[in-house]
Amino acid sequence: MFVDHIQIHAKAGKGGRGAVSFRREKFVPRGGPDGGDGGRGGNVILRPDPNVDNLVEFHYQSNLKAKNGDNGGSKNCTGHGAQDMIYKVPVGTLIYRMPFTPEETGPAPRDTTSFLDLETLTDEEAAKLEHRHEPRKKKVDPDELELVADLDRPGVDFVLCKGGDGGKGNVHFKSSRNRVPRQFTDGVDGEEGVFYLELRKIADAGLVGYPNAGKSTLLSHISNAHPKIAPYPFTTLTPHIGVVDLANYRRVTVADIPGLIEGAHENVGLGHDFLRHIVRCKLLIFVLDMAGSEGREPLEDLQKLRKELDLYDPTLSERQWIVVANKMDLEGAKTKLKQFKTRYKKLEVFPVCAEQSEGLDKLKARLGELIPEEPPAPAEPEAAEEN
Ligand SMILES: Nc1nc2c(ncn2[C@@H]2O[C@H](COP(=O)(O)OP(=O)(O)OP(=O)(O)O)[C@@H](O)[C@H]2O)c(=O)[nH]1
Ligand SMILES: [Mg+2]
Q1: Which of 76, 113, 271, 350 has the most neighbouring CB atoms within 10 Å?
Q2: Angle, CA of 242, 248 and 252, to the nearest 5°
Q3: In degrees rounded to 5, what are phi and psi of residue 305?
Q4: 272: CA distance to ligand 1 center in Å?
């Protein structure tokens, strides 16, 4: 299963309670207070890990919890701090805070409709029934949520919910006037919240095209990826990322997503749900079936694809883009390419036959030029500071 957006609930550990205790030893009468402080509650931490592909783990475990700190002890013993709970997420996970409180999003009430006589319901009861699942039904629109973090760098941890501090033991409350203090403080509650995680894969370039255009074939011939290839539409069901080796030990990443069809922005077909994965790409590669082998018209295809992207996210149309004219081995492809080039004179078009790896070297070399080199990664991971 591939999960790229999910709602979770997280709760950090509460701090331990401070202790009330007095030193009691032989030959030390009235030894004074010695109640230690409580330990710190555990943090809930998210760690972007390049080996994690998607958010499926949170489908099975959507409640992230860290343990409470231990209570303080006598003899000035501070309680043990609880361990932080570290959850791995894919690199490219965005975290949004949900506006409603955890109580509202708790388990949905049991559906008792079948036991009720709907005819005899009072208006008030009917209204209650109508709203019984409301918080869960709410469709999440990330644009309306507060973005908390963008975990786009591997290994740079993010503290999602901070554990509460431990309470103070009675040793802190002694004074010249109060030598037998019985006061202590309770540990502070850990932070808690409901969050929406959204994965936007990070790749340098994204392949965009109709089903069966040959996107996966292209990716499998230029990179180390092995996506499934088949002569039927919607072979690719989840995004894949391939690493393309270029000259001078340079590498760029290319994302293959399921084919788009008209109306994708309105959630027709599969494409819409996956468009999020090309939002971060610096370069868009439109893959067209230049032979128009399934009764398609490459000129029209390009216009429709560009329109779909624009309707999904207008900033996408400002992105750098090139065209790969695939299936050049098939009949009619050359004529259509000529027409295409007359219509789009200034456009960069790479005629290829992905299946036979023809024309791919030129394309790869151009990818190297179009995609700027990454600055070197920071020497010290910030993770150490945050913990
Ligand atoms: N003749 C010819 N066929 C090709 C070429 N490239 C891909 N194909 C065929 O086109 C079909 C579809 O290829 P895929 O790579 O699965 O296409 P896709 O764009 O990834 O399709 P979806 O995942 O469904 O969106 C397969 O049968 C490929 O063998 C090519 O250059 N020439
Ligand atoms: Mg495919």
Answers
A1: 271
A2: 20
A3: -65, -45
A4: 20
Residue nearest to atom 24 of ligand 1 (CA): 234
Return the CATH class of domain 205-370.
alpha beta
Q: Average pLDDT, stretch 108-128?
A: 51
Centroid of ligand 2 to alpha carbon of 214 (angstroms): 7
Nearest CA among 230, 284, 282 for reference residue 256: 284
CA dihedral 98→102→105→106, nearest 10 degrees, is 160
Tell whether ligand 1 has an atom less than 6 A from the beta carbon of residue 111. Answer: no
Distances (CA, A) of 329 to 233, 301, 352, 354, 357: 20, 19, 8, 9, 11
Between these two residues, 373 and 175, which has the higher pLDDT value?
Answer: 175
Count of CB atoms within 10 A of residue 135's CB? Answer: 16
Q: How do residues 334-387 score in pLDDT, each as one tens digit? A: 999 999 999 988 889 999 999 999 999 999 999 999 988 766 655 555 544 444
CB 114 within 8 A of CB 18: no
Question: Hey, do 5-100+138-199 and 205-370 end up sharing a CATH topology, with the first three levels equal?
Answer: no
Return the closest-CA partner of residue 298 out of 337, 263, 330, 270. Answer: 337
Report the residue among 2, 208, 217, 301 best suited for mutation to probe ligand 1: largest number of ligand atoms under 8 A from its CB. Answer: 217
For 227, counting Cβ atoms within 10 Å of its Cβ (0-12 exposed, 13-18 middle, 19+ buried), the class is buried
Sole residue written with tokens 């979770």: 8
Give the whole-angstrom CA distance, residue 152 versus residue 199.
Answer: 10
Report the candidate in 239, 252, 340, 265 with the shortest Cα–Cα distance to residue 296: 340
Cβ–ligand 1 distance for 209 under 6 Å, the answer yes
List pLDDT tens digits, range 261-288.
776 556 556 666 778 888 889 899 999 9
Q: Domain residue spans in the chain?
A: 5-100+138-199, 205-370
* Each residue's pLDDT tens digit, 84-94: 999 999 999 99
Amino acid at 20: V
Chain CA centroid to CA 345, Å:
39
212 lines ligand 1 (CB under 6 A): yes
Task: Tell me the residue type at 73.
Answer: G
Ligand 1 probe mutation, 207, 355, 356, most atoms within 8 A of CB: 355
Q: What is the CATH number of domain 5-100+138-199?
A: 2.70.210.12
